[in-house]
Amino acid sequence: MNTLSYGRAALPDAELVRLFSQMTQVRHLDTSAIAWQRQGILPGYAPMRGQEAAQVGSVAALDMSRDFVFPTYREMGAALAAGVDMGEYMATHKATWNGGMYDARETRVTPIQTVIGGSALHAVGWAHGQRLDAAAAGADEPLDLPVALVYLGDGASSQGDIHEAMNFAGVFETPTVFFVQNNGWAISVPTERQVAGGSVAARGAGYGIASIHVDGNDVEAVVQATRAAVAHARSGAGPAVVEAMTYRRGPHSTSDDPGRYRSLAEERRDGGVDPMDALRDRLLEAGALTAEDVAAIQSEAEAFEERVRADVQAQGPRPGAEMFEYVYQEMPAPLREQAAAWREESDHV
Amino acid sequence: MAELSFPLPDLGEGLIEATILEWLVEEGEHVERNQPLVEVETTKSSLELPSPQTGVVVRTHGGPGETIDVGDPLIVFEVPDDTAGIIGTVPKDEKPKRRVRLNVDLDD
Amino acid sequence: MSNAVATPPVDAGAGRTVPAERTGRTTLSMNQAINAALHDALAENPRTLVLGEDVGRLGGVFRVTDGLQAKFGADRVFDTPLAESGILGMSAGLAMAGYHPIPEVQFDGFTYPAINQLVTQIARMNFRTRGALPMPITLRMPSFGGIQSPELHSESLEWLFAHVAGLKVVSPSSPHQAYHLLRHAAQRPDPVVYMEPKSRYWQKGRVDFDEPGNLEGAHVARAGRHLTLVAWGAMVSRCLQAAEAAAEDGLDVEVLDLRWLSPIDADALAASISKTRRAVVVHEAPKTAGLGAEVSQLITERCFGTLKAPVERVTGFDVPFPSGSLENEYIPNIDRILYGIQRVLEYRRG
């Protein structure tokens, strides 16, 4: 197994504080989004509690001025860290627009993807495009390529597209980082009933892809491991797999009842240390933060959530014409006729 | 017409070359697939190579006694442009047969 | 089989580097015409790519991509691993990176493993991203039957593609159409499925590079007064033969080559059938829920008052495409088309 090593040098306190602030925003927004669903603001939501370190930490290793992120539907933390407007992000859960309202090209984050494993091949293709661009420009080795980082989970690793993506990435040596959040559960099915052999990263060996196992609850380790993977890909050495071992501390979605497949005692046992608590305690002990700082960060997160909530609540339905407008760049005549008939016959303003 | 070149195949067990003993076909000759093409000698044995292709021989490489490396051109065929792909047959473009006759009684 | 020396690429404008200057008329087979169109698309736009199984060194199993890798290099014309979902998903990513991929699925039936990427990703990405990430992808595939190929190498999938919002679908019927429609498709900002009638690959025809004609909508392949045969792909030439047979019996048949199967040119259908007042639609796909039903309905909507008889369908049967020994029983032949015409002629309002 081609295991990629990564530095263990501590990150500067200031950076860890910044990460902690982001993670706090994410945790509070995630917790709130569940409440919004219970309050009728959102029809549904896919919580990511417990994956804050993995998501915020992995994006921290990217250069968002040139890299590109390919999320699933459970990457609110990654999207926030990448700079996506959270109101526009939540638009998908609000059922305003499938995929979210953010501009995928501007944000360099592809739309929220509901097909498990659906984005991995896109990350390979996009990354191959970067390689072709570099070749056309006559770039010298070692290369300095933009990198595609695609998120997937332990469940997605069962999909055929993930095999195809890893194989294509290996064959074409694309600058793709497969960031696996192994959160232990694909809805009700635990990893041991999902991943033969027990490790997604171990599969990298079969594709000749460098891989890293990392504690996904340790944000510092996630940053460093992802940086190593990104540097590997950026240099033109090919793709990398990072398997961040974490735990889905909440339900699969707001309509899921984990009590049917795991007990609270099991959750406490398997969940381990909450990544939020671990980082907070560490920063307090190191003197990088005071209790007052922690409280202030929490207040900021709450204020932020209030703004996002207001944005989400203010979102009305999109104009129905958009249903027709965005199907094609060049709208075919029959669709134009259907749009005209809709305008004529439907009760709307 | 198109040309299709075949290299000396790896005759197994790590042999890297073979010596031409005798060509069994001539340039300009039409050969069928599996028809013996050439007798060659390796360090292990002498053997006949069957043709991988139906077509007309355009060129052969190497005369009797000459050595050819595995992978170097051995023989070139001329094949029609409209050979089928990997699978299937080329349909004939012939005037179709008809059985049915129309009873045309237009009430226009 | 290795090291095959490729047939030189068809290049009617030999020595030219700007394909827009390819001029004049020449005779090409359809696979040569498609090869020329791919060549010119690659030459015209440096961000156009050709990818798929065996499209590079081998030049494709039907030699449609012959010589393109030698001319444009392995960065722009490349072999992929054997995985159709991978080919289409990678194409989606390349489109996101600003490329114009022209992926090949080696045979129609191999599209089934790629349906997920085609339907859930490529067809919807422009919609999902509100136009931010369009998918200028031209998906080519040898289509339909007629060459006695193995199972799942003779599918007619236009019924499926045409039903998917976000895709456009086109099928050429002649070398001239093949060249120009592919050039046109490859310049579109939306995904286009380009269905190549594989039984017509070797038939030669005139290609006029200077006069593409109208590339949108349907095309009148033969003008007639009494009845319209509506067809696409390989069935156009069969309908032309049926029209000749009908002419011997005194019936003047028009053949409308639909060409675009999504969107369907309803105006051309209406123009033709308002004139002939009778229609038979012919396709290879199974009858039930085939595109013939859609065509028939479009005709009914626009020409109901003038129709002399209900629209007839002459199609494949509701069975899996059979093995080669039976394909001539399955694919509409001249006699079945003539029977369909006869049913229309004999219809009397009761």
Please outline the helices and strands.
The complex is a heterotrimer of chains A (349), B (108) and C (350).
Chain A: H1 13-38, H2 52-60, E1 68-70, H3 76-81, H4 86-90, H5 104-107, H6 120-136, E2 148-153, H7 160-172, E3 176-182, E4 185-186, E5 189-190, H8 204-207, E6 210-215, H9 219-234, E7 240-245, H10 264-271, H11 275-286, H12 291-314, H13 321-325, H14 333-345
Parallel strand pairs in A: 1-2, 2-3, 3-7, 6-7
Antiparallel strand pairs in A: 4-5
Helix pairs in contact in A: 1-2, 1-11, 1-12, 2-9, 6-7
Chain B: E1 2-7, E2 17-23, E3 30-31, E4 36-41, E5 46-50, E6 55-60, E7 67-69, E8 73-79
Antiparallel strand pairs in B: 1-8, 2-4, 2-7, 3-6, 4-5, 6-8
Chain C: E1 25-29, H1 30-44, E2 48-52, H2 68-72, E3 77-79, H3 84-96, E4 100-104, H4 115-122, H5 125-128, E5 138-143, H6 158-163, E6 168-170, H7 175-186, E7 192-197, E8 204-208, E9 219-222, E10 227-231, H8 235-248, E11 253-257, E12 260-262, H9 266-276, E13 279-286, H10 291-303, E14 312-316, H11 327-330, H12 334-346
Parallel strand pairs in C: 2-3, 2-4, 5-7, 6-7, 10-11, 10-13, 13-14
Antiparallel strand pairs in C: 1-8, 6-12, 9-11
Organism (chain A): Zhihengliuella salsuginis
InterPro entries (chain A): Alpha-ketoacid_DH_E1_comp, DH_E1, THDP-binding
Enzyme class (chain A): oxidoreductase
**Topology, number of strands of chain A:** 7
Which CATH architecture of the largest domain in chain C is right? 3-Layer(aba) Sandwich
Alpha-carbon Rg of chain C, integer: 20 Å
> What is the mean predicted local confidence, pLDDT of chain A?
93
Integer count of domains of chain C: 2
CATH class wording of the largest domain in chain A? Alpha Beta
Number of helices of chain A: 14
Distance N to C terminus of chain C: 65 Å
CATH top-level class of the largest domain in chain C: Alpha Beta
Write up what this structure looks like:
The complex is a heterotrimer of chains A (349), B (108) and C (350). Chain A contains 14 helices and seven strands. Chain A has 349 residues and is an alpha/beta fold. Chain A has two domains: 13-318, Rossmann fold; 319-349, no CATH class. Chain A starts with 12 loop residues before the first helix and ends with a helix. By secondary structure, chain B is mostly beta strands. In chain B, the strands form two sheets. Chain B has a four-stranded antiparallel beta sheet with strand order 1-8-6-3, with no helix packed on it. Chain C is 34% helix and 19% strand. Chain C is built from twelve helices and 14 strands. In chain C, helix 1 (30-44) runs parallel beside helix 7 (175-186) and helix 9 crosses helix 10 (291-303). Classes of the chains: A alpha/beta (349), B mainly beta (108), C alpha/beta (350). Chains in contact: A-C, B-C. Chains A and C meet through helix 5, helix 6, helix 7 and helix 14 of A and helix 3, helix 4 and helix 5 of C.
